[in-house]
TrEMBL record:
Gene Ontology CC annotation, any one: extracellular region
InterPro entries the record matches: GDSL, GDSL_lipolytic_enzyme, Lipase_GDSL_AS, SGNH_plant_lipase-like
Name of this protein: GDSL lipase/esterase
Signal peptide, first to last residue: 1-22
Organism for this UniProt entry: Arabidopsis thaliana x Arabidopsis arenosa
Record-level GO BP terms: lipid metabolic process
GO terms assigned for molecular function: lipase activity
Membership in a protein family: Belongs to the 'GDSL' lipolytic enzyme family.
Keywords: Signal
Amino acid sequence: MFRGKIFVLSLFSIYVLSSAAGQNTSFSALFAFGDSVLDTGNNNFLLTLLKGNYWPYGLSFDYKFPTGRFGNGRVFTDIVAQGLQIKRLVPAYSKIRRIDSEDLKTGVCFASGGSGIDDLTSRTLRVLSAGDQVKDFKDYLKKLKRVVKRKKKVKEIVSNAVFLISEGNNDLGYFVAPALIRLQSTNTYTSKMVVWTRKFLKDLYDLGARKFAVMGVMPVGCLPLHRAVFGGVFGWCNFLLNKVTEDFNSKLQKGLTSYAVEYDFKDAKFVYVDMYGTLMDLVKNPKAYGFLEARKACCCMPNAIIPCFNPDKYVFYDFAHPSQKAYEVISKPIVYQIAKGLA
């Protein structure tokens, strides 16, 4: 009985921290879309093997509680939201899960671990595709309208919110498998990814979004998974995969600068978030930022149940995800960039 009370109290405390907004005056909310870099627990409700709701995930989270976040603690969604003074924790959205009215007004997460901008990636991994996430956002808008009562207020919240997007990591991170299945060259495939991204952003724009922070793909060739498979005993990065990633990121960045002019994105603002360069800096210079290890993962390789009790010393917590500290380090200039570019 006593244990049950502690558990309820822990969940209540997490809920209060999630709902408590800061003194932000620039942005009304933060909405996250995309993959496991941003997912705060949406995969918990899906029939997929890609889940983060078991220990040792959440080892550094409040009360060491695994919430479905793919890491040892808070993920990039939470850290950016706090940096923008919106709130400390961003809850996962689900049609079957009740979300507090304050959280509805200040932002939720629609991202799904394993998702890609290519529907083939999402279907293969049985997770929420970009289109599924747009559908969930439409459902969210109905709930928001019931909470705030006025259509004008809904429009105000959505148009003033930051839409944080992370797509492409899984499309490229699984050895560019979708491109191979489609029998396309990597150059053709990365160009199509940019087109799919534009369509995704336009779908959100048509629903009221105006402020987009679009994240480039991480240096996936230097993830512990690819070092283990490609690098052998030396732990080298997969440079060919990094080259494809850089190609996509370059095309995406150029695309974002042209959307407002060449396509129908009136009054929209775009900020490109350089996840590749910021994370690569940590990978190349870990000790400069207080890390001891940038090649190997802290946990979950090869045995998922072996915990790691010093995740702050690792750039990566598991085979594909940065640690909470890594997110915190790279977020500082990124948050400033988002705040300035979308103000």
